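Fill in residues.
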């Protein structure tokens, strides 16, 4: 979909996943189709009652791996968010928020926690133009480029308190950054209050440098490069804990995609839905001390 941005593409995948017939396998983002803009027309078709099921079936046929991957990514990050706020996190930060609808669809789980959405200026404007289609909630919209701006300063000016336990969701962002952007963000997170949590997804460095040849990964790399948004950063398989330790962060879980598939896409009869992208995983990290 060369004319569709990354934000629109992943939101379309969530919208299609939310329409799947098996409830236990659906994407929980039931607001995804509502926040999609009416242009470009391809993703907008999932908003039309007479067309949405046809679009969903077409995506399941042509982009099944991406759609199912988005189901497990959404569910995993929802779980970390819910567990973190239940354990006392009083601030929620969505980095590279895109068309994320969590602030609107998870109001019960978030409770009284303050919500900060950080994105590049043009994307933040587009998001704010769309939130009228969603249930109302109190969100502080902040703009930053993670490779150029001081994230701590941006958040502080927006009312963020680094001494308060926080949960940070960093969904679908790290592969697009250069190494310095990732490292700078990890250093920022490491200075937050003890007990704060960070969850992010990543690809294997091996698919970027060509030491692992995976046809599905090569196809994704071509697609994102064609949109002008190439993947630049990854983690070597099995090296997540080493990366976090360098920033004095605690690894709670490094969940590879295959294990996440079994956790979130297993039916009651024991069969596992797929395919999904199997060249990365999900990290839950914590600031130690509590």
């Amino acid at each position: 979909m060369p004319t569709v941005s990354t934000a629109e593409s992943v939101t379309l995948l969530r919208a299609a996943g939310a329409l799947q017939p098996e409830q236990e396998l659906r994407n929980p983002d039931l607001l995804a189709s509502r926040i999609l803009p009416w242009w470009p027309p391809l993703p907008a078709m999932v908003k039309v009652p007479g067309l949405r099921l046809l679009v969903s079936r077409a995506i399941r046929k042509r982009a099944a791996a991406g759609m199912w991957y988005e189901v497990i990514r959404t569910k995993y990050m929802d779980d970390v968010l819910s567990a973190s706020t239940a354990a006392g996190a009083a601030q929620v930060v969505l980095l590279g928020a895109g068309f994320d609808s969590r602030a609107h669809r998870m109001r019960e789980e978030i409770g009284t926690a303050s919500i900060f959405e950080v994105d590049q200026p043009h994307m933040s404007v587009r998001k704010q133009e769309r939130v009228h289609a969603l249930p109302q909630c109190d969100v502080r919209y902040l703009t930053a480029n993670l490779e150029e701006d001081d994230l701590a300063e941006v958040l502080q000016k927006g009312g963020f308190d680094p001494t308060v336990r926080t949960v940070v969701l960093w969904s679908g962002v790290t592969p697009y950054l250069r190494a310095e952007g990732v490292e700078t963000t990890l250093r920022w997170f490491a200075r937050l209050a003890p007990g704060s949590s960070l969850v992010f997804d990543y690809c294997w460095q091996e698919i970027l440098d060509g030491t692992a040849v995976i046809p599905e990964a090569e196809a994704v790399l071509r697609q994102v490069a064609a949109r002008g948004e190439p993947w630049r950063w990854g983690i070597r398989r099995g090296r997540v804990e080493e990366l976090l330790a360098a920033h004095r962060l605690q690894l709670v879980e490094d969940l590879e995609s295959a294990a996440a598939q079994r956790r979130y896409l297993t039916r009651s009869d024991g069969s596992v839905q797929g395919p999904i992208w199997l060249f990365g995983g999900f990290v839950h990290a914590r600031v130690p001390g509590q």
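The first strand starts at residue 91 and ends at 95.
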